[in-house]
């Protein structure tokens, strides 16, 4: 009896184990979790904190974070990713460290940080020697020139913050001055006959956004407007063109030249510049008639010339005779009744000049046409101006500010 029970027990256990094995064999294997590599890159004058090493291996759908530290006398200006995040933009000197968290990761991507110099220029002009070649603010003029002024090729005097060149009188001296603690840039605006540039001279300041202080979203650069007849040959300077130098020695700055074109044979581009510095070719062009045509055709005949075709502050063109003709003999074209077109043009001038001071928007992105931010960021260096069309009302989001990385990207020489 005992042996019989024993064999029955063994048979039942064997059947149970076989069944369990069949059950386990039919269970699906656990799906593998996808992982991606996220790499942090750091610009000059900063570092990645040791607590957040790179690269990081991240599960699909998870996030990761990197901490960036600025070097002495610098601050974190931006953190930009290719992971689909909105990025971080800053112009505050006080941000010496910043931790950036990515969005949910769905592919390999990078996170890049840039850093900017804290503004601490404090040149004492009384201690500057006339033979000194020091250029504290790096704009191409020596501290001595910016303390005691320069003379343009036509004899016009521009004084410095501490005095004027010898021979300067009230009849040949301009009211604008140079300053060794604030970068200076000279700009030539070349208007088209019957164009729109003529309505941007005074007021408003065509490059107001560049000259605005950084606390207001500007670049904090003093702009000096001159004509092409006030420049001179650049001496031993070999980069073309060689006749746009404001002064010849010791490190001559070339004036930035912006040409207005009324060409309207195509819709794009609305502006063009060579990316680089003032030392490069003078190929900055703003197509003002295309801008006006773009506004009028985008809004349509029913909305153009009314508040239903305006920017976010309600600025619009009340002079509808500008579309599609240009401003030839249009004496009533002014900052009031051409307001939207002129504001769009002003934005474009500031955008194109910024390309010649950089590159600004310092991370190249082919998806955004190069050194630009994504349309809709609503800053000057966007690829294009964002607009909406809802219920017969068209609204243009015309950016008037730069970002912290833009400020950090300013360069006057290669």
Short recap of the structure:
The chain is an alpha/beta fold and 414 residues long.
Silhouette = flat
Total of helices: 6
Strand content: 15-25%
**Whole-number radius of gyration?**
30 Å
Overall tally of domains: 3
H-E order: HEEEEEEEEHEEEHEEEEHEHEEH
- The number of strands is 18
Could you list the spans in which at least 5 consecutive residues all have pLDDT below 50? 14-28, 322-331
Compute the separation of the termini in Å. Answer: 101 Å
Task: Walk across the major sheet and give the strand order.
Answer: 3-1-8-5-6
Portion of residues within helices:
10-25%
User: For the residues shown, what is the average pLDDT?
Assistant: 82
What is the makeup of the main sheet? 5 strands, mixed
Structural class label? alpha/beta
């Amino acid at each position: 009896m005992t042996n019989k029970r024993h064999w029955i027990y063994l048979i039942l256990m064997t059947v149970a184990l076989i069944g369990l094995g069949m059950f386990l064999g039919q269970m699906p294997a656990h799906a593998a979790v996808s992982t991606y590599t996220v790499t942090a890159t750091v610009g000059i004058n900063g570092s990645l904190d040791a607590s957040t090493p790179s690269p990081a291996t991240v599960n699909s759908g998870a996030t990761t974070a990197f901490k960036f530290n600025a070097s002495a006398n610098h601050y974190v200006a931006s953190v930009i990713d290719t992971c689909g995040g909105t990025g971080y933009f800053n112009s505050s000197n006080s941000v010496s460290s910043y931790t950036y968290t990515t969005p949910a990761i769905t592919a390999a991507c990078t996170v890049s940080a840039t850093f900017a110099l804290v503004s601490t220029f404090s040149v004492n002009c009384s201690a500057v020697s006339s033979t000194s070649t020091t250029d504290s603010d790096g704009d191409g003029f020596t501290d001595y020139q910016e303390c005691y002024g320069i003379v343009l090729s036509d004899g016009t005097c521009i004084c410095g913050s501490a005095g004027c060149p010898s021979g300067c009188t009230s009849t040949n001296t301009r009211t604008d001055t140079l300053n060794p603690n604030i970068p200076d840039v000279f700009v030539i605006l070349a208007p088209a006959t019957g164009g729109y540039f003529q309505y941007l001279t005074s007021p408003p300041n065509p490059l107001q956004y560049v000259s605005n202080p950084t606390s207001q979203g500007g670049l904090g650069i003093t702009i000096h407007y001159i004509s092409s007849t006030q420049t001179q040959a650049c001496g031993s300077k070999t980069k073309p063109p060689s006749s746009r130098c404001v002064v010849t020695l010791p490190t001559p700055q070339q004036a930035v030249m912006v040409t207005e074109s009324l060409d309207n044979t195509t819709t794009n581009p609305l502006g063009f510049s060579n990316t680089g510095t003032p030392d490069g070719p003078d190929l900055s062009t703003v197509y003002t008639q295309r801008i006006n045509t773009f506004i009028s055709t985008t809004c349509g005949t029913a909305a153009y010339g009314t508040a239903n075709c305006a920017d976010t502050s309600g600025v619009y063109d009340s002079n509808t005779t500008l579309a599609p003709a240009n401003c030839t003999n249009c004496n009533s074209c002014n900052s009031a009744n051409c307001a939207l077109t002129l504001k769009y043009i002003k934005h474009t001038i500031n955008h194109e000049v910024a390309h010649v001071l950089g590159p600004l928007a310092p991370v190249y992105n082919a998806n955004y046409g190069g050194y630009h931010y994504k349309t809709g960021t609503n800053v000057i260096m966007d690829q294009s101006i964002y607009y909406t069309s809802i219920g017969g009302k068209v609204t243009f989001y015309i950016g008037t500010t730069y970002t912290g990385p833009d400020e950090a990207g300013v360069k006057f020489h290669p």
